[in-house]
Each structure stands twice: as C-alpha cells, then as structure tokens.
Design a protein that fits this description.
Elements lengths: L1 E3 H14 L7 H4 L11 E3 L8 E3 L6 E3 L4 E2 L2 E2 L4 H24 L3 H19 L12 H12 L3 H25 L3 H23 E2 L2 E2 L2 H19 L2 H7 L1 H15 L15 H15 L5
Antiparallel strand pairs: 1-4, 2-3, 3-6, 4-5, 7-8
Helix pairs in contact: 1-11, 3-4, 3-6, 3-7, 3-8, 4-5, 5-6, 7-8, 7-11, 8-10, 9-10, 10-11
Length: about 290
C-alpha cells in the first residue's frame, strides 16, 4: 500500500485550476487543514502515520501504515491523529462488513486483519488517555471469525469491537469540546487517506488492487457518516454550505458503486481528487 505524493500534488492543481476557485482566493474560501496551493503542503500518510510535508518538486512514498520516506514529518494534533486512526479502523470494518453480509468472507478478511496489523500498534499506548479498554485481542478474534466463515460468532465479535470504538468516541468527545468541527476535521483527514488508497488501486486504467479500492470505499463512507452525525449542528451554522457539502459527498461516492471492485474505475484518480477538493472547500466553512 504505497502512498503517493503525486495524488496530493494533483489535488493542489485541481483546487487551483479545476474547482472553479481562483488560486489566490483559496485561503479565504477553504479552511481545510493541511492543504495549501503554493509552496509545500501536507499529505496524510496511510493509516496512523503523521502527515508528511512535501513540495511539488520532490516525490515521496510510504509503505502502508509504516510511515513515509522523504520529506519533513509534521505531526497532527494528538487528538486528531488518534481520531483518524479510529476512523480508519471503522472504515475497514465498514467495508469488511458489507462483504461479509454478501457472503464474500475471503474478500472481507484483509479489512479485518489490517486494523490489528497496521493501526492498533500506533494507538495502543494512547488508549488509557481516552479511557478505552485494550481491544487488540478483540480485533484478532473478529478477524478469526471471518477467516473461519463463522457468521454467528462474527456478529458477537463485531459487537465487542464496536463497544471499544464507542469508548473511543466518548473519550474523544471529552477531549474535544467543539465536536462538530472536530468531526469535520477527522473526516477530511480520513478522505486524504481514501484518495491515496484509490490511486493505489488503479493501474493502467483498471482496478488492479481490489483491497485498496475497498479500503478507500470504507474510508469515504465512514467520513460521510461522521459528517452526517453532526448534521444539525453544521446545518445550523451554514445551511447553504452544508447542502453543498452533502452534494459533494454524494458525487464523490459515485466512484464506488459497490463494495465489490469493478474491472474499470467509474472515475479516474483526478476526478476523485477533484471531488475531494470540493468537499474540502465546503467543509472549510465549518472550520473557521
């Protein structure tokens, strides 16, 4: 799962030239964090790694959740880093659950393995901070039920993991008093990871890596769910902007028609980047 700076260089280009917003006015219309048109800008690494600052003149790659190579590391705020990791776990489980419900246990398995293998190690030392009981064993038990194709055991194992994730939500709510804003920030960081995964899935105009396609679907769907969960607060702040934000998310989701990867992408990477740029522009209205 290689991340690619090309995706986020492309996103900067889309925002500046293809989203209908003048580059010199971007800072006023979008308050989306960790994204700038000129100079250097931040990109999110896959899974729980910190974002990496790169410039358009330099390339940067990273291996899955193990961190990036090259560039200068700029850590997100601790609460946001932790929340993104929880969001990525939820995204994996979301798409994995879709596949399980469709009887596709083999396709689902990677999405239940990745939380323990790629993400949990980066957050386990922070669990106590948010009053969360350890749940690595629960994640592994859940993955085992999928591997064994035991649907009855799966339901109970999933419920246990979801209880621990609910504890994470409660702990983060205690730490972040402006929950609507924080939810939007977390959703945007999760969408950046989704874009990287989507780009990694496509080779020569075909979806060559179904797992990455599915990862990105799960991350996008959960990002939208985080925003939906604070609908009333966001709509009260700016109803017009929230309507546009919802419309941008609906358009973005069209790239993932089903959990099962199609042979060819519905949208190419640049189109998905453009859609995410529009989401970020509207989301900026709620980050001021």
């Amino acid at each position: 799962m290689k991340t690619s700076s090309k995706l986020w260089i492309g996103l900067g280009t889309v925002i500046a030239a293809g989203a209908g917003v003048a580059a010199d006015g971007l800072a006023e219309t979008s308050a989306a964090p960790a994204l700038h048109v000129s100079g250097s800008f931040d990109i999110a690494q896959h899974a729980h790694g910190a974002p990496v600052k790169v410039t358009p003149a330099k390339g940067q790659g990273g291996e899955g959740g193990e961190g990036g190579e090259g560039g200068k590391a700029d850590a997100l705020a601790p609460n946001l880093t932790f929340a993104r990791s929880i969001a990525l776990i939820r995204g994996h489980l979301l798409v994995g659950d879709e596949l399980v419900k469709d009887g596709r246990f083999g396709e689902a398995l990677p999405h239940f393995l990745h939380p323990a293998e790629e993400i949990y190690g980066g957050i386990k030392n922070d669990l106590a901070t948010y009053k969360i009981r350890p749940f690595e064993a629960a994640l592994k038990a859940l993955a085992q039920t999928v591997k064994a194709r035991k649907k009855d055991a799966y339901d109970g194992a999933l419920k246990l993991v979801q209880e621990r994730l609910a504890e994470a939500d409660a702990g983060l709510r205690e730490a972040e008093k402006n929950w609507p804003r924080f939810s939007v920030e977390t959703a945007l960081e999760t969408l950046k990871v989704a874009a990287d995964e989507y780009g990694n899935a496509i080779e020569k105009g075909r979806i060559a890596k179904a797992v990455e396609y599915q990862d990105s679907r799960g991350f996008v769907w959960h990002s939208a769910a985080m925003i939906d969960a604070v609908t009333s607060e966001l709509a009260a702040k700016d109803a017009a902007a929230f309507k546009e934000l919802q419309a941008a998310l609906v358009e973005l989701k069209k790239a993932w028609p089903t959990a099962v990867a199609p042979k060819r992408p519905v949208k190419d990477t640049s189109a998905v980047l453009g859609d995410i740029a529009r989401v970020e522009l509207q989301a900026g209205n709620f980050l001021r």
